[in-house]
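Suppose a classmate hands you a notebook page containing two proteins, each written out with its sequence and a corresponding row of structure tokens. How would you begin to make sense of it? This section walks through that situation. The first entry is reproduced here exactly as it would appear on such a page.
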Amino acid sequence: MSTSEQQLQEFRAEVSAWLQANNPPDPGFLLPQTFMEVGDERQLDFLREWQHKVWSAGYLGMAWPREYGGGGMDPAFQSVVDQEMRRHNVPICFNVIGLGWAGPLIKDIGTHEQKARYLKNILSAEDIWCQGFSEPEHGSDLGNAQTRAVRDGDEYVINGQKIWTTMGNFARYMILLARTNPEAERKYDGLSFFLSPMDVPGVDTRPIRKITGEYGFTETFFTDARIPADCLMGEEGEGWRIAMQTLQYERGAEAGAAGGLSMIRVTVDDMIQGLQGVRRDGEPVLRDPVVRDQVVRAIMEEKAMVLGARRAGVGPLTTDYPGSLPLSSKLRLSESTRRMRQLAINLQGAEGGLYVGDAQARQGGFWQRAYFNSFSATIGGGTSQVQANIVAEHILGLPK
């Protein structure tokens, strides 16, 4: 039976009431603006408890199968929850690599044993996941990954290094791309994909301090680390194909994520509110005609993103370039977010140079921190330059 509009409206009222009653109070320390900023145990414990509470209430993984901890419901219900979580400004559901990338992949192509082993604990936040794709010497050239995985009986022996491993120091599992056949004629054919445990001897993580002064990323080192052979996803040599499917989830081009709020959504309306009281030459900065033109341009860009997401779900409106909106959404969103946050700082004038911890910083330095954090989204999941190449080659049909 299809879900009616009345059912969704009634459900929305239920979710809104629950969020209003259960939104946790300010813990007294800075919370991450995205899942890429979970830097200490206090933040981790707070967010793990919150995600578990959301899942226990039935509001996370609503479209995932019941037998694996989900709700077995129409995805429209999860969409309502996600919308209400943004509206109520609740904390993020931090286990995003599990909820949004590893989980959907396992749900779609994993064995029954893999689904039973991993999915429920992803939803409950018992098991945190990280991603082992990027390497220090190869940047965005993922196909040239050199971390080695050598079969030794019922185990693989892993040696190598990964970089920008979000929450690697907290994770129990990693989606790992490693080279099993260095002699393959095509470099892509020598890669394999693993659901690798992190709590085995030979795996070492080292936190990376970011420009914000916070942590969230790590370097991960593998030194003769042994993982069970059944951690292999698919067959040897299928790693590139599986990694590309995973990146489709990460970039928003494939459905299937468990839901939840992955980052604090900051809108142009928030920027306008934050600029109240800022003056330039004795007048409110928002009365300046040039500033108003810049703000209107940001509003138009934000509205275009919203309408584009709606259009992507209407087939007849995307026949000219099928898949173009989902494939380009990561590039468009991350860059427009960066530009809007930079504008918010520029319009503060001299106050824009202050930061978190300075008593004179507007809104406690919120916008400065948000601007610095926005760069991680222009790098993770493929840099903006790589995303532009994807649009050029796979949507516009331009040559490599």
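The notebook's second entry, a different protein, reads as follows.
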Amino acid sequence: MKLLIIEDEKSLREDVIEYLTENKYSCDFASTVKSGMMKLTETKYSCALVDLGLPDGSGIEVVEFIKSKYPEMGIIIITAANSLEDKLQGLKIGADDYLTKPFHLSELSARIYSVLRRRNFGGKNVLSFDDLEIDTTEKKVIANGSQMQLTKKEYDILVYLASNPTHLITKEALAEAIWGDKAEMAATFDFVYSQIKNLKKKLNEAGLKDYIKVVYGMGYKFKD
């Protein structure tokens, strides 16, 4: 899952990004309202972590922008200990959760997981599709009763496609969601094709054919 961290306190931002990256999230960051909104218009994110006290304005502006343009995105606001009014305003206009500084990184990770689970998986820990089960807590994939051995990227791709079963996902969108900013440096998206090919092969070998459909010239779609 791809996250946007909008925080101007450099040391906190770096700690958050390092911790979340270690926990298998892909992270981009911004330090101002302006740069945060620019990032949001350029890339699709699953969740945004928004500091309300930014140098060029209030993070409330960012929350309002997200809710108007990207209502499906999760939002967690970060507030100072004495900013109860801002916290309540943020929740009122649609933020999913909040954290008050200082906070434990493990708690942040748990809050992010909870928001994503509610938004992407309808509150469920296990996604079931006929003979396929994806346990998002244990990060396990069960096919026809047997656990599949997937690489991290293969697992991330499968979860991303499975969480958007009614959408056609372009190679560009998939690359941004799984590889983050690194995708922008690629001359082609052959690496996406390679990962999809390997994942489809493993699904086929497990008896799960046509779970990932290739729409030639357009992108990919998960089994309805």
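A careful reader of the second entry would note: The helical segments are 10-22, 33-42, 59-69, 84-92, 105-121, 152-162, 171-179, 190-205.
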